[in-house]
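Re-running AraC family transcriptional regulator to confirm reproducibility after the cluster update. Everything else is unchanged from the original entry.
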Amino acid sequence: MKRQASRSLGSTSIPPVQQFLQAGRHCKIDVSSALEHAGIALSELYKIDGRLSGEQFQRLLHYLIDQSKHPLFGLYSARFIQPDRFYILGQIGLNSTDLSQALKEAMPLEKLVGDMGVTEIREHSDGIKMVWHCQYSHPLVISHLIDNVLASWVNFARFLLEDNQAAPRAIQLQRDKPSPAEVQQYEQLFGCPVHFAQSDNAIVIDKSLLGRRLPGGNLKRLSQLTISANLRLNNIGDADDLELKTARVIRQLLPQGKIQREQVSGHLHMAGRSLQRHLIKQGSSYQALLDQIRHEMADYWLTCSELSMDEIALQLGFSDARVFFRAYKTWTGHTPGLTRTKASDGARS
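Result of re-run:
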């Protein structure tokens, strides 16, 4: 059974794509093959205000991560950020008066960069906590993308401050603690303590850093740039926003067990029937979106992990492995065991 094309990952601008491609080149990856694998024409990378689908970008990231053989490829790729080319958000940051204003102006506009995730600002005893919620579906890609985004924000702040030693108070990551050598790489890049197995993926920034003046502040120019950015944001449109938000909530709730439509709609502050109605208008449905996300994640766990069938079933919110088996066979026409066997045979060949 052929899987329906996913439309739940939105789109991305070209600069983040170029950033990862540059990291891939430094890892001796054939970029032409990477683009072909992701279905991206080279000409797409040179279009003014061009955007790629989130599905293309996720396929590209998966290929680059796999081919790089670099356990911290996402962290490594952050060094290739080019803030002056990072869409209009870079210019907004450069013309802000202090770091706090730069973040305040940039956060509502992050969709211009892409739909990879959403940043949430929370108050913190030391200043603020920037929590990033990844919206992509492939677990292998998610962990690298989180590293990249948090590290890119830190490098971006250093660029604005003209201070390569500027550092946040702390970094929090949900991933398990890696090897001591990898922990050292995290702390060298961020310049601060990095805490693992946390409840959020976040940057904690203290008040003194937030209040630091930026060298190129220009309020008149900032106002003009903000108006221009909002016009561009309106041109992108938000037709798929509900689907993106629904997919994100589903991914967050799945490991907690079986989820109901009303649970998901509650997180979106709407009734279950209303959610279904709006999704149908966008050419989807709650069940189709749930099945799509479960299928994507199942394929990952089956091919890239050693989790048992029972463990995978729990990760996907199924009551037991038998229910997972039936669902997977409905999606693909074959058993999950066959997918795992093919992946294992391919790795040995």
